[in-house]
């Protein structure tokens, strides 16, 4: 019964209203005195509740003295509640002031489920372009959302560290490979060159992300993406020559700026 009463409270009925309606549904019909006696509460509270529910149309009051009340059958009752709720929702939609709430400049998302849901939500709102820098594990989890974006005309550009079995159109691995990678797999998205989401996934429950519309962050991520693809194309054209001069993955250059041994 408590479970049912909780749902009635969620629909806007008071504790007493819910108990009265459930009791009448059990008994078929009853007087105010009988309902009060069965619930073990004062008659004055029950009488006021019965009259209020009857005025709202949820109860029917029979003729005679004492008045006997009955609740609408379940299907009719739920239709009436649904209609009242829909009217309230429409009134809120029409009457709520249109001022847009201010978003914080940066906000954090934590936890694997929350991060993935936030990523999917951001991707679903893209209108023109999505820039993606991601590992193959996250690419697989978000592939459906990104393909849906492409299907509605959004331009999707990829940089994806993947395995040999990753589709070629998803591949544009960084020349720097996994250099500097610590604590998990990094990802970043730039939505419509404005909305950014970047973070890291790794151990279960350790996912974290930052969402922002700060123009400097968008500029940095877009610049990094462009530089990564330029390096990729250079590697495709001159990879053997560059590797011969600087070593595999050009480690002699990377160590110079990453603090490793020269």
Automatic annotation (TrEMBL):
InterPro entries: TrmB-like, Tscrpt_reg_TrmB_C, Tscrpt_reg_TrmB_N, WH-like_DNA-bd_sf, WH_DNA-bd_sf. Residues 107-225 form the Transcription regulator TrmB C-terminal domain. Residues 8-75 form the Transcription regulator TrmB N-terminal domain. The keyword 4Fe-4S does not apply. Keywords: Coiled coil. Residues 109-152 form a coiled coil. It comes from the Bacteria. This is Helix-turn-helix domain-containing protein. It comes from Paenibacillus lacisoli.
